[in-house]
């Protein structure tokens, strides 16, 4: 009589046989720190520093993993958007024809 192996492998073959695999998981909802930094044209270390200071974009913590939602990155970047000031309103002479 064969003894059951105490070091069972997980997931079992039976669970894998019932699994449904999808080729298209849909749109990406979350990105890691490196991808978020690339998206914002920042260094990953900069986002890590913002996080430790309680600043920066909103993030999610899944266990030890930090993830950012793309709409949160866009909203955070949008709050730093600046409109260029018109040169005429500051009394700076324009170059070129009037």
Produce a short descriptive summary:
The protein is 33% helix and 10% strand. It contains four helices and three strands.
Mean pLDDT, rounded to whole units?
Answer: 84
Number of helices: 4
Describe the largest sheet. Answer: 3 strands, antiparallel
Proportion of beta-strand residues: 5-15%
List the strand order in the largest sheet. Answer: 1-3-2
Please tally the β strands and state the result: 3
Radius of gyration: 25 Å
Give the overall shape. elongated
Low-pLDDT sequence parts:
none
Q: What is the H/E string?
A: HEHHEEH
Structural class per helix/strand content?
A: alpha+beta
What percent of the residues sit in helical stretches (DSSP H or I)? 25-40%
Q: Span between N and C termini?
A: 99 Å
Task: Tell me what the structure shows.
It comes from Consotaella salsifontis. InterPro entries: DNA-bd_dom_put_sf. The protein contains 4 helices and 3 strands, in the order H-E-H-H-E-E-H. With 98 residues, the chain is of the alpha+beta class. The chain has a domain of 55 residues. The chain has a 3-stranded antiparallel sheet with strand order 1-3-2. A hairpin with a 2-residue loop joins strand 2 and strand 3. Helix 2 crosses helix 3. The protein is elongated and about 85 Å long.
Helices and strands, with pairings:
Elements: H1 13-18, E1 30-31, H2 33-40, H3 44-52, E2 60-62, E3 65-69, H4 70-78
Antiparallel strand pairs: 1-3, 2-3
Helix pairs in contact: 2-3
List keywords for this structure.
alpha+beta, 98 residues, 10% strand, single chain, 33% helix, elongated, 3-stranded antiparallel beta sheet
């Amino acid at each position: 009589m064969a003894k059951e192996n105490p070091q069972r492998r997980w997931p079992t073959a039976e669970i894998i046989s019932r699994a449904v695999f999808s080729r298209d998981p849909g749109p990406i909802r979350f990105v890691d720190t490196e991808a978020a930094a690339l998206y914002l044209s920042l260094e990953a270390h900069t986002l890590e520093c913002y996080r430790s200071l309680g600043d920066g974009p909103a993030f999610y913590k899944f266990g030890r993993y930090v993830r950012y939602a793309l709409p949160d990155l866009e909203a955070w970047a949008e709050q730093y958007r600046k409109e260029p000031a018109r040169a005429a309103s500051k009394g700076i002479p324009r170059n070129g024809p009037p």
